[in-house]
Amino acid sequence: MAIPDFQSLMLPVLKLASDGLDHLSRDARERLSEEFGLTDEEQREPLLSGQSRFYNRILWALHHLKMAGLIASSGRGTFHITEQGLAVLGEPPARIDLRFLSQFPEYKDRRGARREEGKPETSAPAISIVATPMELVEAGYKQLREALVEEVLQQVRSSSWQLLEHLVVALLLAMGYGAREDSGVVLGKSGDGGVDGVINEDALGLDAIYLQAKRQEATVGRPQVQAFVGSLEGRHANKGVFITTSDFTREAREYLRHIPRAVRLINGPRLAELMVEYGVGVSVEKTLTLKRLDADYFLDPDAM
Hints:
Helix content: 40-55%
Structural class: alpha/beta
Largest sheet: 5 strands, mixed
Strand content: 5-15%
């Protein structure tokens, strides 16, 4: 099943604590994963920060329950139910969410203190919130990245074929191929047989990756790929990369499964993704640093 959102976890978390004992947040993760029937893969699904998405949602459910006074912290990473929480479970609601918690004055006070002074409170949209703040950051990052990838692709498609030949060599070098920074060579008009560049993987050039770059709108078919493989054979080369700003046909991809040489195909969208990932043709506009509480610092009396 899908990983439950953090509001859907609030009531199960409160019920888990109904025994009045202290509970570890990591134990809640194990108990709730069983209750919701999550697979190992769903339990481990990471955010960009590396933290488990499911565990992050549990922590935010605990955070809001604590703000409403339904649970309290028993120490680092532990929580227990309060009298107010037990009262809620005395007549358990069908669901606990942000709108339900807004009935508690302490919750409204704590939430209101975080809003800008004079900004009206709008509780209606709160019930539709399913993402944690970290997930909202992640979603925003992905949206910006996707827009950048599309912008890079359109720029590459509108640039000259000469620039494409240079950037694919620069990309392979940025990806770690080549013995040195000057291991990549753009052959340009001097190349023949459909080879536009070469990456020397060792200092003596005994092992090399040959490149072909096609700036075109039409999909690249098997004949063009087969011709590129033929040019590798003529050079007694075993490695090649064919890059196009468009795409490859199914027949072209299928053909490569039956040849002994290591040939990789990179279409336009994948080319743009790799350029963004390895910093070719893009630059850093702003770096955001997300910080979190260092609980260990406050446990060490010598830290001050």
